[in-house]
Amino acid sequence: MNLKYINANEWIFFSNYNSPKGCQFESHNQVSILIYWASTNTQIRMKAKISKTSEEFSDQHFQGRTKEKNALAISSNQSEIIDSFDEVSKNFYKTLESMTPETNRPNFWGGYSFTPYYFEFWQGHENRLNKRHVFDKQGEEWIEQILQP
Ligand SMILES: Cc1cc2nc3c(=O)[nH]c(=O)nc-3n(C[C@H](O)[C@H](O)[C@H](O)COP(=O)(O)O)c2cc1C
Q1: In sequence order, what E strands does the chain have?
Q2: Does residue 90 lie within any of the structural domains?
Q3: Ligand 1 atom at shortest distance from the alpha carbon of 19
Q4: Which residue out of 13, 14, 15, 88 has the highest number of ligand 1 atoms within 8 Å of its CB and is therefore the one to mutate?
Q5: Nearest atom within ligand 1 for CA of residue 24
Q6: Domain count of the chain?
Q7: What CATH number is attached to the domain comprising 49?
Q8: Ligand 1 pocket, residue 5 CB under 6 Å
Q9: Torsion (CA) 83, 88, 91, 96 in degrees, nearest 10
C-alpha cells in the first residue's frame, strides 16, 4: 500500500476497485493493516473500517499524477491472469499514446480511506521479550493496553 495522505483520522491510498482486494472491501468494510520495518525490528498493526473516497477526491488525485502512472491505472486489470507480459506492455503504450490532458479517471480506479480504531506497536527485543503496546478506541476514548509477548 502506497499511503498518500493522512487527513485527520483518515488514511488514504489508491487502487483498482475491481481487484481482489477491491471486491473484498465491497463484501465487508473491516481491514487489518500490517507495517513492518526490519531495520528497526518494529511492527505496527492496525484495525480499521475502509470505504472509497469521494469521486471528487479521486479525480483531483488522478489529475495530479503523471501521464504514465495514469496510463497504467487505465490499462491494467489489476491482478488478472495474463498470457504474457508483452500484452501488458502493448496495452500500456497504446493507452499512453491515446491520452490527452482531458483524459478522465476511469471509474474502476480511485481512493480508499480507512480510519484505524486499533493500533498495536510491536518492538522486537532479545530473547523474544517483545514489547506490545496497544491503543484501542472504545467509544470516543483510546484505551491503552500492554500485551504479553
Ligand atoms: C511498496 C508497495 C506499494 C504498493 N502500493 C500499492 C497501492 O498504493 N495500491 C495498490 O493497489 N497496490 C499497491 N501495491 C501492490 C499491493 O501490495 C498488491 O500486490 C496489489 O494491490 C494486488 O492486490 P490485489 O490482489 O488485491 O489486486 C504496493 C506494493 C508495494 C510493494
Answers
A1: 5-7, 10-16, 30-37, 42-52, 109-123, 131-138, 141-147
A2: no
A3: 27
A4: 15
A5: 26
A6: 1
A7: 2.30.110.10
A8: no
A9: 180
Contact 146, 132 (CB under 8 A): yes
Dist CA 47 CA 141 (whole Å): 16
pLDDT digits (tens, 9 = 90+) for 28-67: 999 999 999 999 999 999 999 999 999 999 999 999 999 9
20 lines ligand 1 (CB under 6 A): yes
Q: What confidence tens digit (pLDDT) does each residue in 14-25 have? A: 999 999 999 999
What's the domain range around 128?
A: 5-66+107-147
3-state secondary structure of 131: strand
